[in-house]
Design brief:
mainly alpha
């Protein structure tokens, strides 16, 4: 009970070699993930810099506002 047979050790070694061996597959995957996260954060920073904060106050007139002003001027004459 609790002992591992030689086939269990072979399976464990093969799994560990697949994860950590062969040119650092796991470290390269983690490096790629870190680069992706960094690029995402940089993209968010660039987006914030590109959009200046909106001024509070009056909004520019829309087409609906223009239609309203036309109906007011025609109805008063």
């Amino acid at each position: 009970m609790g002992g591992l047979s030689p086939i269990h050790w072979i399976i464990i070694i093969v799994v560990l070699l697949l994860i950590f061996g062969g040119g650092g597959k796991l470290s390269s995957m983690m490096g790629d993930a870190a680069k992706g996260v960094k690029a995402f954060k940089d993209g968010l920073k660039d987006e914030d810099k590109a959009d200046p904060p909106a001024k509070t106050g009056t909004l520019p007139p829309t087409e609906a506002d223009a239609d309203k002003s036309k109906t007011k001027s025609t109805s008063t004459t």
